[in-house]
Write a structure and sequence with these properties.
Layout: E1 2-6, H1 14-23, E2 28-34, E3 53-58, E4 61-66, H2 70-80, E5 86-93, H3 105-115, E6 119-125, H4 137-147, E7 155-159, E8 167-169, E9 179-185, E10 191-197, H5 208-213, E11 217-221, H6 229-238, H7 243-248, H8 256-264
Parallel strand pairs: 1-2, 1-5, 2-4, 5-6, 6-7, 8-11
Antiparallel strand pairs: 3-4, 7-11, 9-10
Helix pairs in contact: 1-4, 2-3
The structure holds manganese (II) ion (MN).
Length: 278
């Protein structure tokens, strides 16, 4: 089994070393990760400059440090290593529960793998776990044993609390959000702002946050389709638009030119010359 390991805390994170070590019991491991910490970088990619990587060494294991984001690192790793079976991201220093999956680079690295058609698991531990990840290794092993079979889920977000009681399947807790702007000031008295997070508790039963509060390892299967199916059905029936015509048009308007035109409009144009030509 070929296991690509990445993270968002940077290639030298002790959490990554712990995950890579456990993963190597299950197959051949290659580490490709950001050269510096890119926590909270979400699913950003580097599209306005080229990427490069350098070999390095973490705990006797060859690794590659990429001057890009977690998603960049997974893309570069998958490009250079044929037939990757699964991508593991983490072990992040700090939980990724509930709405934090929107900001998480750890989860984004796993999502990037899924976009590339690969299976992936994101792993997070308490922020206070650093620097001793030894107690978490048996739980990483248990999670991999539970997930590394043929019909395992495509994308899973795993959070490992301190001294777990066992493993449970969960859903994402999205009822409350922990992001908050906190004003402060610089030495000159000018106002600055922290985009900070505050502690949440008492999440709904069955969610990732609830599970970790109760001391369970939380395993949340994630999907990448953000469509709100319930709202879509409600709006289609209460406020129908032109869907009927859109699917009934014959012959379809879509053409190779139309497909290319939309595709070109998804990315920024290349730099213009002073006379306006590209
Ligand atoms: Mn991180």
């Amino acid at each position: 089994m070929r296991i690509l390991v990445s993270n968002d805390d940077g290639v030298y994170s002790p959490g990554l070393a712990a995950l890579a070590e456990v993963a190597s019991e299950f197959g051949s491991v290659r580490v490709v990760a950001p050269d510096v910490e890119r926590s909270s970088s979400g699913h950003s990619i580097t599209a306005t400059r080229p990427l490069s990587y350098r070999p390095t060494n973490i705990g006797g294991l060859t690794a590659y440090r990429v001057n890009g984001t977690p998603a960049d690192s997974v893309a570069i790793g998958a490009y250079h290593w044929e037939k990757v079976d699964i991508v593991l991201s983490g072990l992040n220093i700090g939980f990724n529960l509930g709405n934090s999956i929107w900001h998480s680079g750890t989860v984004a690295a796993a999502k990037q793998a899924t976009l590339l058609g690969l299976r992936a698991i994101a792993f997070s531990a308490p922020a206070s776990a650093e620097p001793d990840f030894e107690p978490y290794k048996p739980w990483l092993r248990q999670v991999l044993e539970a997930l590394l079979h043929e019909d395992g889920p495509r994308l899973v977000n795993v959070n490992v609390p301190r001294e777990p009681r066992g493993l449970v399947w969960t859903r994402v807790s999205v009822r409350t959000y922990d992001g908050r702007i906190v004003p402060t000031s610089d030495p000159m008295g000018r106002t600055l702002f922290w985009f900070s997070t505050h502690a949440l508790e008492s999440a709904e039963e069955g969610t990732d946050r609830w599970a970790v509060e109760q001391g369970w390892v939380s395993l949340t299967p994630l999907g990448l389709d953000l469509t709100d199916g319930e709202q879509l059905r409600r709006m289609q029936s209460s406020h129908p638009l032109d869907e009927g015509r859109a699917v009934a048009v014959s012959p379809p308007r879509s053409s190779p030119q139309a497909v290319r035109s939309v595709s070109e409009d998804e990315s920024e144009p290349s730099a213009s010359t002073p006379d306006g030509s590209r």
